[in-house]
Amino acid sequence: MADKRELLILGGGLVGMTLALAAARKGISSHVVDRADPAELTAVGFDGRASAISTASWNLFTNIGLAERLEEQGCPIASIAVTDGMKPGRIDFQPGPAEGSLGRMFSNRTLRLALFEAAREQPLITWHARAQIVGRERGEHGVVAELADGSRLEASLMIAAEGRNSPTREDAGISIAKWDYRHRAIIAGLTHEKPHDGVAWEIFYPAGPFALLPLLDGPGGVHRSALVWTVDEKDAAGVLALSDRAFAAEVEKRMHGVFGAVALEGPRSSYPLGFHHTAKITSHRLALVGDAAHGIHPIAGQGLNLGLRDVGALVEVLAEGMRLGLEPGDAQLLSRYEQWRGLDSFMVALATDGLTRLFGIPGRLPSAVRRFGMGMVQRTPPLKRWFMDEARGMTGTLPGLLQG
Questions:
Q1: Domains in the chain, ordered, with CATH?
Q2: How would you classify residue 325: left for phi > 0, otherwise alpha for psi between -120 and 50, otherwise beta?
Q3: Which of 24, 109, 208, 322 is deepest in the core (most CB within 10 A)?
Q4: What pTM did the predictor assign?
């Protein structure tokens, strides 16, 4: 039995579900298909990761009605400190009083809970959780996903939001450039003696960046931060095998006493780091969003924000086209989305890849050169402002949903 909607969103993660909610705000209906169990995704301890939500992405959440659900659960990022191994010559990014914060930190679990709750309340979203796709069709007049239970879900446009290993992208034969950094990100929650004061630290070491991201204080005023520690793949097993006490000692050493005594909060997790970027982000009646289109190093915390820029642009293109009488799968609309997002996402991907390689060069001379450059940025307000606007996601041609 067929059930027709305008969009068929394959993947109901942070980007896919945000897309469904943003589309619904414009009156666009969707099927959202995801093989995962929502109860597992939102279980305590399932995913210890946290995400930095940029100013532009927060504008998107505000414009689709999510901000009220999230406001009290996020920690504002008051400033960002960037340093080469805690040596002299760091950059401090701090917005003016009228600009508010540089973004907000949320646990991924918090974001999922808010998104899933909003999706359940939205009649324009039909959510198919724990669903296995056994067939995909993209024809002249529409698209179809066939589920293992025999259901056939029809729509005008298919959207791949399944992440880095998107089977829909592979099925469409879209070529991809990718490489492995041979690094692994170790994720952990920390409690610490001194307050973080809303400062996000990005400490660069030759083995990779060491990021400390501010979280809201816990019960009893316990100071908390999220750690993203990049290590060489060959060292990852040894670091993960350390006892909690030994791991905390290694973390303290790399923090140079910034937060005082440190303890672990919850289990550690890790994932390999790689780069990928597709040759194109559209095909016949198909659009790619988020990590299905581009996967970047977490060095600047822009991965999710890049996907949310895809969401804003695609929804704006579709809504404007539908007002003119075009259907969502129209080739003209997909071409406009490709032109809008293809170059921007590629430039961000290149920038993060370049930073990863630049700060990975060991030795005193490369460190001195990097710190000289960072000092120049610190002393040049227009250049510093540009980097800060990039971090806030407020550069380039912004979709309406991402504007204030």
A1: 2-178+275-402 (3.50.50.60)
A2: left
A3: 208
A4: 0.91
Is the CA virtual torsion 310, 313, 315, 318 positive or negative? negative
Measured in whole angstroms, the distance separating CA 206 from the mean position of its chain's CA atoms is 24
Q: How far is CA 136 from the centre of its chain?
A: 27
- Name the pairing type of β-strands 30-33 and 125-128: parallel
- Among residues 60, 150, 131, 59, the alpha carbon closest in space to that of 101 is found at 59
CA pair distance 367, 375, nearest whole angstrom = 12
Each of the 404 residues of the chain gets a pLDDT tens digit; together they read 467 899 999 999 999 999 999 999 999 999 999 998 888 888 776 677 889 999 999 999 999 999 999 999 999 999 999 898 888 888 888 887 767 788 999 999 999 999 999 999 999 999 999 999 999 999 999 999 999 999 999 999 999 999 999 999 999 999 998 888 889 999 999 999 999 999 999 998 888 889 999 999 999 999 999 999 999 999 999 999 999 999 999 999 999 989 999 999 988 999 898 888 898 999 999 999 999 999 887 766 678 999 999 999 999 999 999 999 999 999 999 999 999 998 777 777 767 776 777 777 777 877 778 887 877 778 888 877 877 787 788 878 899 999 97
The answer to whether the CB of 70 falls within 8 A of the CB of 123 is no
Q: Give the SS3 label for residue 180.
A: strand
Burial per residue of 58-84, b for 16 or more beta-carbon CB atoms within 10 angstroms, e otherwise: bbbbbbbebbebbeebbbebbbbbbbb
Give the position of tokens 């075009």. Answer: 326
| Kind of pairing between the strands at 50-54 and 143-147 | unpaired
